[in-house]
Design goal:
heterodimer; A: mainly alpha; 11 helices; B: about 140 residues; mainly alpha; about 0% strand; disordered N terminus
Chain lengths: ~280, ~140
Amino acid sequence: MVSFELLFPISILAGFVGAIGGMGGGVILIPALTLLGVDIKHAIAISILSVIATSSGSASAYVRDHLTNLKVGMFLEMFTIVGALAGARITIASSSAPLYIIFGLVLLGSWIALFAAGHYSWHEPQTQDAFSRWLELEGSYPDQVLGKTVHYKARRAYFGAPLMFGAGVIAGLLGIGAGAVKVLIHDLVMGLPPKVSTTTSNLIIGVTALAGTSVYLYAGLIEPGLAAPVILGVVIGAFLGTRLLVRLSNQAVRRVFLFILLILAAEMIFRGLRGV
Amino acid sequence: MSVTPSAHPDPGSTSKAEARQFEMDVLVGYILLYGVVLSLLLICAGLIWRLVNTGNLHFDYELSGMNLFQLVATELKQALHAELRPRLFLSLGIAVLMLTPFIRVLASVFYFLGVLKNWKYTLFTSLVLIVLTYSLFLR
């Protein structure tokens, strides 16, 4: 078994790098744990448990700042949790090598999403379809940069919902928050303003991770001795990372993070192809 | 009435609905915050106790084939019948962490039902609650 002295700092690092890159700790944590010799299914199970802590921790602040849209979150949760239950069951039934490859591919996908994210800009006026209006998917939030309250309406919920099921499958399957996927759906499909989309995705990630965690717990994949240092470490790292993020230049951070992500993606795919 | 028509909102009822929505934000936010903090404190307590007792932080136990409620029941039973052990705190920390989003959803159901009287979202959050309850009681 991997020692506390090793797990704790690695988890702090994973939470730190994840937060700086604007993602959860999972994408860094799982490759790191497998490199330490933890079986990938155990790594996934522990990661998804720690995702509950990091996402709920940051969601608590965003919700109180009225940035999160609870209705959008609660509507989409119906789909992500079912996806997560399915995804976790697939992982338990699967052998290890395909999990490495899928993980690497999802990292590559996140890499592309992050790379493209810099080129997206939100427009305020929107027409809303009847279904999204029926769902009351609209709101407003105080924008401190613009110095005014921004009103917005979400659209295409009929398309966003099934996509969110897919995001839930990825989260449950790989033990990550899959925040990048969720934000992409919020932004590009449903037309939410960036602040609302990231903070609402954070809220959704918590319950989605819980659904996945329950399956892994029951499958006996959660070892408290491994989980404890990881949860503590990732939360501490994410906390520090978020604090530091405000003071760092965006471009430099993005480049370093994108580089790390690419290396990890290649490494996971390579190990998967080699049969672990 | 919670559903204000978006076309011609009555200013009075809009601000009231908005104020209630704000209250709900605060409630949900604090549930998440206290849940995570309590869980981290329990885990820390377990680790420190273990360190003081044995000089190491090596826990070696698996939770095989137990859902959350069986886990909590087993740990509490052992705490009552045998001696108190650091692992109780570790398991309880994990349990509190898992229950945090669950209680957030539970509170949302009651808020949509009792305060906002929004039947649509009472139904949606209830569905989420049912699926989560099912997953916590897996057997």
